[in-house]
Specification:
418 residues, 5-stranded mixed β-sheet, 2 domains
Length: 418
């Protein structure tokens, strides 16, 4: 990989604008994140290596396991409350804006203008990377949630055809069941159920997804289509194994990788697990959009929000921000992570077939106006509303609510926190 913008260059840049001396280069960065699975750790290593090998910036690792980052955000709150925020924090969507609003984030404008971020970061991401016109976070990727990850041998044994709609998908799950494998690999955690729900709701129409999750239209949240969405969740629930409760998402991915299960409905971080296990798209596994959602994308972007830290640490912090936005890094990192680059000018050449598809789908959805923030991944609504939605979806999935009751509760839960 070519060298990132050097620390010295950053220090000079910072020195010009903040008076930070150029010798303040070895403060290191403390990074809070939830990338603890095999594929995630491999991707993170690309960033650590880039910073340490190229610039001798020390990396103080602060991992907090838990997909979707719920636990990481709890730890973060304690750190900020104690007056000791980490240098950089992996963060999603509305959470970034929430911290910015509280005045806790630093200002990345100098690095952003030196590297021309405005011109290359998609507008859909900038809405979360900037607050009141100032850059506050560096986006490292674009993931999306409306994907299926299918074991290729199991698909072939079921006739080999990719399901194009809900009925064909259910038929495929039935075929997996007949093969004696777990049809649907799932981990019973609220955020994972919400991730499935993204795809299910989107499969009932772009307008419906937007009305329900972006606009919070009570008619969409409480209507017949939402009942249909919950009925589809009930159907999916019949295809998971008995031990699904509490299972981590990467263990569900492993079930598909090992041929114990047919398919996982998960964001494209799942691809990182397949790649880490040496699996090849098209040979060992198949990636496709949740049936009925090709052409639309429910996205989320991992960004590193930069907190207000000491002047000395700020040099390393800015070097990290610059390293993240380096085009060569964006390619190298996202090839391993399973995501698309957070810049529009990075070639898809180094990416496998699923990565190329992710990049092409993202661009197409952006042009068509069918690119939507993921509800499950904090890109549709702020945390309070997201958590209210999670609660109803997970209670329904676990059999505590009928579809009728879930629809009623959904409207009430959203209204209560709005
Ligand atoms: C998401 C995050 C992904 C992936 C996933 C599972 O919230 O955006 O990068 O790591 O959690 O941990």
């Amino acid at each position: 990989m070519r060298r990132f913008m050097t620390t010295t260059a950053i220090a000079v840049l910072m020195g010009i604008t903040t008076g930070v001396p150029a010798h303040a280069q070895d403060q290191g960065v403390e990074v809070l994140h939830w990338w603890t699975s095999g594929g995630e750790a491999a991707a993170l290593q690309v960033l650590k290596d880039g910073l340490f090998n190229d610039q001798a910036i020390n990396w103080e690792d602060m991992p907090v396991a838990g997909g979707g980052g719920g636990d990481a955000m709890t730890v973060l709150r304690a750190r900020v409350t104690a007056g000791n925020p980490p240098t950089a924090v992996q963060m999603l969507g509305f959470d970034i804006l929430d911290w910015a609003q509280q005045g806790t984030l630093g200002n990345l404008n100098d690095v952003a203008s030196a590297q021309g971020w405005d011109a290359v970061v998609p507008t859909a991401l900038q809405q979360f990377s900037k607050y009141e016109g100032n850059w506050i976070a560096a986006p490292v990727n674009v993931h999306s949630t409306n994907w299926l990850w299918i074991n290729k041998a199991a698909l072939d044994a079921a006739g080999g055809a990719e399901p194009t709609n809900w009925e064909e998908f259910v038929a495929l799950l039935e075929a997996f069941k007949a093969q004696g494998i777990t049809p649907l690999a799932h981990g019973g955690q609220a955020w994972q159920e919400a991730t499935i729900f993204d795809g299910v709701v989107l499969s009932l129409g772009n307008d419906f997804y937007k009305a329900a999750f972006i606009d919070l239209d009570p008619a969409a949240l409480g209507g017949e289509q939402m009942k249909e969405a919950f009925d589809r969740m009930t159907t999916l629930r019949t295809f998971v194994d008995d031990n699904f409760s509490g299972r981590d998402w990467n263990l569900a991915s492993a079930m598909v990788i090992n041929g114990e299960a047919g398919v996982q409905i998960m964001g494209d971080w799942a691809k990182g697990e397949f790649i880490k296990a040496g699996k090849v798209p098209g040979t060992d596994f198949v990636c496709m959009r949740f049936p009925g959602t090709q052409g639309s994308v429910t996205f989320n972007s991992d960004q590193f929000a930069m907190f207000n830290v000491s002047e000395e640490r700020r040099v390393s912090q800015m070097a990290m921000a610059a390293a993240i936005m380096d085009p060569a890094f964006q390619s190298a990192f996202n090839v391993v992570k399973g995501s698309a680059p957070a810049r529009t000018d990075v070639s898809d050449e180094a990416f496998d077939a699923c990565g190329k598809k992710a990049i092409a789908d993202l661009a197409a959805a952006n042009t068509a106006g069918t690119l939507f923030g993921s509800m499950a991944q904090g890109h549709a609504q702020p945390a309070a509303i997201k958590n209210a939605l999670y609660d109803v979806v997970t209670r329904h999935f676990n059999g505590e609510l009928s579809s009728e009751d879930a629809v009623t509760e959904l409207v009430a839960a959203v209204a209560a926190v709005q």
